[in-house]
Amino acid sequence: MRLTAPSDTLLATREADRATPATPPRGTAVIERFGLRHGDTEVGVLAIRTGTEFDRPVAVLDDLWIRPEHRRSGLGAAAVAEAERWASGHGAPRLSVACVPDDPAHLALFRDYQVVSRHMVIPVGDAVEPTAIRADPMTEAEYGPWLAHSVTGFAEVTAESQGFTPEEATDRAKQVFAQLLPDGLATEGHELWMVRQGDDVVAHLWLFHDAPDGHTFIFDIEVTPDRRGTGLGKETMALARWRAAVHGRDGVKLNVFATNEVATGLYRRLGYRATVEFRFKALTG
């Protein structure tokens, strides 16, 4: 297996076989596209997205396509190995990939890759406003403490799951929140709720309703420690579906870290299904 410059014919054949249009690179990311050659035959296309994230080099396996007549012959695994060698040779400490969790071919190709997180979705369905809780818009007085708490929590989980140092994870978390909420509570498309039972705050919920895929995205949901295991997680998730319905969205989407097995189990019991698994493999130089 060799990486070569792809021919126009090969690229056109790949695009004709693509279910959705290719995603253009974002920010300073660059997509390197290669032809996959086995002997004298062009057998597929490989694309690797490279760039930096918080001053670290990153490499993402953006596309891997093998011509139908050459599939089930080990060429996919050979292409992944070539991608790993290329990424390592260009200074990336890991290669990341987004897998389709119900695709056996994907799971077989990337079984050695560690799962970092999953996107899970559920249709809005017949969502109704939950009655066991009350949702109040977050106030400016509540926003500061919530932000500090959430930045700390996000930093801890990213340090654990993605190998950042505590300092790197904290800096990354601060930048992420600043990018997502540049105007704080007034940031367009976002809702931040304090969830109460009686006068007691029992949870908080952060929703984004303007994603182009038609889903409301849950950026953050947390039940206070002393109220966990009492059904409030389920009620707060019902609140998210109802708010999605109010905004005319098709469904609700969230990202859950693989280390959070309790939350993953809850989402599955509620009917959420995983649509994407984000995985990575550490590379040796």
From TrEMBL:
Pfam families: Acetyltransf_1 (PF00583). One of its GO terms (molecular function) is acyltransferase activity, transferring groups other than amino-acyl groups. Keywords: Acyltransferase, Transferase. InterPro entries: Acyl_CoA_acyltransferase, Bact_Acetyltransf, GNAT_dom. The keyword Acyltransferase applies. The keyword Acyltransferase applies. PANTHER family: AMINOALKYLPHOSPHONATE N-ACETYLTRANSFERASE-RELATED-RELATED. Residues 1-148, 152-285 form the N-acetyltransferase domain. It comes from Stackebrandtia albiflava. This is Acetyltransferase (GNAT) family protein. Gene3D superfamilies: 3.40.630.30.
